[in-house]
Design a protein that fits this description.
single chain, 293 residues, mainly alpha, 14 helices
Length: 293
């Protein structure tokens, strides 16, 4: 890998890791569903002039916008409102074993004993974290993030089913365009009128929204899928193992989150399990190199 491309891959993982902290700052100023709705609305506004309105494959795009746009982000942001960034960045990695399981079900992929062991270790790591005293009687935020990981894996199946119909920028734009109105309606029905939050939010909340929409949803994915086109999947996917490390460290440094021995041990176990799955068959857990979320 060329040095400049290596630097871009490291930058991408840094952005994705710090994104958990950015989301926490945003959720301090906005309700979770409304924050997601504004995120997708801004992405839609920015990408609409580039990709236009979706006109084909709507029977596949609309369900995908519901799983990835509405369900995945609603679950993860709702959970993160009450969960620290470090734990969230670890728990969401279960999307990798979930994706491998669904690939075995829908695409007849063979798991093999090594990947099965990796999955067990990854799930055991999250279970160890869930055993911390702070989660006793209040496990639902963690379960919400785990649920978001499962929904992401489901959306991954939908993306693969689309094939090479759209490139990454088109698919990002189409999902945002279709998901934004759904999320605005769901937010209004469940969270009520959020206009006072728009008027009272500080620059920190708006900065978090811009980071999520522009830097993460557009800029970082342009880097990611360009690298996926240039290099083999098994050379690119292992970089994602850096994401939870950055998430834990940034949560500790920027939000003063406490790193407990259970989080450290559970995080290492989850990372080791995910690493086995990614390294053994990276293509199973990676979206198509021409399309993505």
């Amino acid at each position: 890998m060329k040095p400049q491309h290596l630097a871009l891959m490291l930058l991408c993982q840094f952005i994705w890791g710090v994104n958990f902290v950015a989301a926490k700052y945003g959720l301090m100023h906005f309700q979770p569903l409304f924050f997601v709705a504004m995120r997708f609305s801004l992405v839609a506004i920015l990408l609409l002039p580039v990709v236009g309105l979706p006109k084909r494959k709507l029977k596949q795009l609309i369900p995908l916008s519901m799983t990835m746009g509405v369900m995945h982000f609603s679950l993860i942001f709702t959970g993160m409102r009450y969960l620290d960034a470090a734990t969230s960045s670890i728990a969401v990695q279960l999307q990798v074993p979930f994706a491998a399981i669904l690939a075995a079900i829908f695409f007849k992929e063979t798991l093999g004993w090594r990947r099965l062991v990796g999955m067990i270790v990854a799930f055991a790591g999250v279970v160890l974290i869930a055993g911390e005293p702070r989660f006793i009687g209040n496990l639902w935020p963690l379960l919400s993030v785990v649920g978001a990981a499962l929904v992401w894996a489901t959306a991954n199946v939908q993306v693969k089913a689309l094939g090479d119909e759209f490139d990454a920028l088109q698919l990002n734009g189409y999902i945002a365009i279709l998901a934004a109105p759904q999320l605005l309606v769901v937010s209004f029905l469940l969270e009520g009128n959020q206009w006072p939050q728009v008027l009272n939010a500080s620059w920190v909340g708006w900065a978090a929204l811009l980071f999520q929409s522009v830097i993460v949803a557009i800029f970082s994915y342009i880097i990611w899928y360009n690298m996926m086109r240039r290099y083999p999947v098994n050379q690119v996917m292992p970089f994602t193992l850096l994401l939870p490390m950055v998430g834990v460290l940034s949560g500790h440094l920027l939000l003063d989150e406490v790193i407990t021995w259970q989080m450290l041990l559970g995080g290492l176990a989850t990372l080791a399990g995910v690493a086995i799955v990614v390294i053994r068959r990276p293509a199973v857990v990676a979206p198509s190199t021409k399309t993505g979320i």
